[in-house]
Amino acid sequence: MSQTAMAKELQRRGLQFRQQMVQRVESGERPLRLNEAVAVADILALDFDAAIRGPEADEDALRRQYESKLREAVSAVVKFEEARDSLGSTLAEVKQLIEDHVNLADTGPLYETHHSISALMAVLTGLADDVDKAMEIPARELKAMYEGRNGEHPEDSE
């Protein structure tokens, strides 16, 4: 942004700035007042609070954001494992129902239903197996990583 454009934007915000004043601020000859600094930050779409706090605050904000996302990931993995366990229980119940009624299903009106359910069971069992294999980080390891000392990954501290 040119100095002239900055001066015009500051004027739009009720501040008496000309191009020469912007030049003096940029060169360090003239300090900015707080209200002027807030206006400049707004014009340049900068986070004024972060600029005042400095780079350490950015690191703290990033750390908080990381920890928040890690908590979300742990929660999602726990929910996923609960859903996977529920799927396993349901599959076991369906399998037991099939085994209990296999004689009835060999003939008569349940024959087609039995084979449809058996095929569905095979697909769901395969899916459950694929999901188990796809889980690279079990919930307990993710939780241990989150709860690691000093924010270190447990593998890094060994």
Summarize this structure briefly.
This protein has 158 residues and is mainly α. Helices cover 75% and strands 0% of the residues. The two termini are 50 Å apart.
How would you sum up this structure, described in words?
The longest helix has 46 residues, at 55-100. α1 (3-12) packs across α2, α5 packs antiparallel against α7 and α5 packs antiparallel against α8. This protein has helices at residues 3-12, 19-27, 34-43, 48-53, 55-100, 102-105, 110-134, 139-146. The chain contains eight helices and no strands.
Mean pLDDT: 75
**Which stretches are low in confidence, meaning pLDDT under 50 for 5 or more residues running?**
152-158
Q: Write the H/E string, N to C.
A: HHHHHHHH
Percent range of helical residues: over 70%
Instruction: Name the overall outline.
Output: rod-shaped
Helix and strand composition category:
mainly alpha
